[in-house]
Write a structure and sequence with these properties.
heterodimer; A: 300 residues; alpha/beta; 2 domains; six-stranded mixed sheet; four-stranded antiparallel sheet; 10 helices; 13 strands; globular; B: 275 residues; mainly alpha; 81% helix
């Protein structure tokens, strides 16, 4: 274990009856590392996360800051912010969920409400609304707010940006950027392009083993944005709808030209969307706007 | 302790919004309303009339409904929560497994007991309104017995929920447990077993171990102190326990049974995969 290492998996094996889901996993994650855990369905990502959270029993050893999450649940989990892929169908009201989580984590519920507001979800307005009745995006924002609105040193997130609108995704990237020096992050996804720009290390799993463990260039400023202009050969409804979902607007005098902004870490995802309409594309321009420019723009 | 009460409170809030709780409350409320509507308080049986008559009938009906209701709703919601990912998320928060498990147990107990006792209280308030005599002794005794019965089946439900990995299996197991206990409630079956050379002591022991039978005998004891309805078994019970002793046994044994079941459930829960 290196001096800075936070998470240590040593020879971890998880078996469900005869089915070996994790096979002798050895993995070390340092503080400040942002790890993409990728792999197809059934690769063992969720099982690995559940073992890390102390929810599954296993053979081998897992430690977070030297403590076993199974034996020191409260101490270990008080440092971990978790965002599941599928929000749980909780019937309790939003306010109650925030108070419950904050109380267990010794956190300030106002901080969670503040993060939710930053993500575009007014938790106070939905205070009495049952959690289960929120939309997919609202649930996701609230769960992220609960995870980030406290003093988490490890963030474990399963496709955290999947249900978020582009603005909320940009805020999420900014919030993650604020945590990047003090916390380790483990971001699970079955598609690398969803999370590639968020991370500086990629761990790929297949059939219970780690098949790739690679550092990636950490060049993307997580708080940056790209000013984009898209020109279409001809106006197309589906393409326009997809751009609208990304917060783009057509030029006032020409509905074939669209302007908008894309969060820096979202560029691969955005280009992935654009590639589906490649035949309609007449031109594309992307210029990075720095954090200071964005701030100046906001002030203006 | 703080986490335990937080979890209990949370479970109460969750349950109060659940459909099963509405149905459950309606069932017990409706029983009391129907008993009044059919003029049962005016009828007389074995010397019981008025509110006492209502309570005697109510508790007989409750014995048939409460155990299966508690079992099914507990296993459905606990095992269902596990399947739906509620455990995965809630247990990612820094709560101890003891606080989580027992918090849910206490919260659930409050929720399953509340409608039963509220229905009885409703009957008493109606009795006061009508100017009838209130059988407080009977009310307190029955409240204790119902509390004990609810606790017992909640404990069994928590054990089944821990053992079964899906809500379908949990429901099936709960139903089988209830049917088995119901089967041994049948004195005819016990009689046949005795006829087939089962020692009488074992038959009596089976009756004393079965929480449903214990509850049933205890409720009988109030309007039939000599347990004439039970036949020769009454001698064993009254000789070994005395009336007061049996009442104490009938209150504390099911509670102990439920606690042991829940304790076993907790033991298995904390040693197994949680979600």
């Amino acid at each position: 274990m290196t001096h800075n290492s936070m998470i240590q998996f040593s020879n971890v094996v998880k078996q469900f009856r005869r089915n070996k889901v994790l096979k002798e996993i050895d993995l070390t994650i340092d503080r400040g590392q942002r790890v993409a855990l990728v792999g197809s369905n059934g690769a063992g990502k969720t099982t690995l996360i559940r073992c890390l959270m102390g929810e599954y029993k296993y053979h081998g050893n897992i430690t977070i800051d030297g403590q076993n999450p199974r034996h020191f649940r409260e101490q270990v989990l008080s440092k971990v912010g978790f965002v599941p892929q599928l929000p749980p169908p909780l019937r309790m009201p939003v306010g109650q969920l925030i108070r419950f989580a904050a109380s267990l984590c010794n956190a300030n519920p106002k901080q969670m409400i503040k993060v939710a507001a930053q993500l575009g979800f007014d938790a106070l307005a939905f205070n009495r609304q049952p959690f289960v009745k929120l939309s997919g995006g609202q649930k996701q924002k609230l769960l992220i707010a609960i995870a980030l609105g406290r003093d988490s040193q490890l963030l474990v997130m399963d496709e955290p940006a999947a249900n978020l609108d582009p603005d909320a995704r940009h805020i999420l990237f900014k919030l993650l950027a604020e945590k990047k020096q003090s916390a380790a992050m483990l971001i699970s996804s079955h598609r690398l392009d969803e999370v590639a720009s968020l991370v500086n290390r990629v761990v790929e799993m297949d059939q219970g083993t780690i098949v790739l463990d690679d550092e990636v260039a950490d060049l993307v400023d997580m708080t940056s944005q790209l000013a984009c202009t898209i020109r279409m050969i001809q106006h197309e409804e589906a393409f326009s709808r997809a751009l609208t979902e990304w917060g783009f607007h057509p030029a006032p005098d020409d509905n074939k030209v669209w302007h908008g902004q894309v969060a820096g870490p979202d560029r691969l995802r955005f280009l992935g969307m654009i590639s589906r309409y490649a035949a309609l594309l007449a031109g594309i321009k992307m210029n990075e706007i720095t954090s200071s420019q964005i701030e100046a723009e906001h002030v203006a | 302790m703080k986490h335990l009460w937080l979890t209990a409170y949370n479970d109460i809030i969750e349950s109060l919004r659940a459909r099963w709780f509405i149905v459950y409350s309606l069932v017990f409320g409706s029983i009391v309303v129907i008993l009044f509507a059919f003029g049962l308080s005016e009828s007389r049986i074995m010397g019981f009339t008025g509110l006492s008559r209502i309570l005697v009938t109510y508790i007989q009906l409750t014995m048939a409904i409460l155990p299966i209701f508690v079992l099914i709703t507990t296993v459905r919601s606990v095992a269902g929560d596990r399947e739906a990912g509620v455990f995965e998320y809630m247990l990612s928060l820094p709560v101890s497994l003891a606080a989580w498990f027992w918090g849910r147990f206490f919260g659930r107990f409050f929720v399953v007991f509340l409608p039963v006792v509220l229905a009885m209280l409703g009957a008493v308030i109606w009795g006061v309104f009508k100017g009838g005599a209130i059988p407080w002794e009977l009310f307190i005794y029955y409240t204790c017995l119902l509390m004990s019965l609810a606790w017992c089946f909640l404990g069994i439900g928590m054990l089944i929920s821990t053992l079964a990995r899906s809500s379908d299996v949990a429901q099936g197991a709960a139903f089988i447990v209830w049917l088995t206990l119901l089967l041994f409630l049948d004195l005819i079956l016990l009689g046949i077993m005795i006829q087939d050379d089962l020692p009488a002591n074992i038959a009596v022991a089976i009756a004393l171990v079965n929480p449903l039978q214990v509850f049933r005998t205890a409720t009988m004891m109030l309007f039939d102190p000599q347990l004439v309805l039970l036949g020769p078994t009454a001698y064993v019970i009254l000789d070994n326990f005395s009336q007061a002793g049996y009442i104490i046994y009938a209150i504390f044994y099911p509670m102990a049974f439920g606690t042991i079941c829940a304790g076993m459930g907790y033991f298995i829960f904390k040693r197994s995969d949680l979600p």
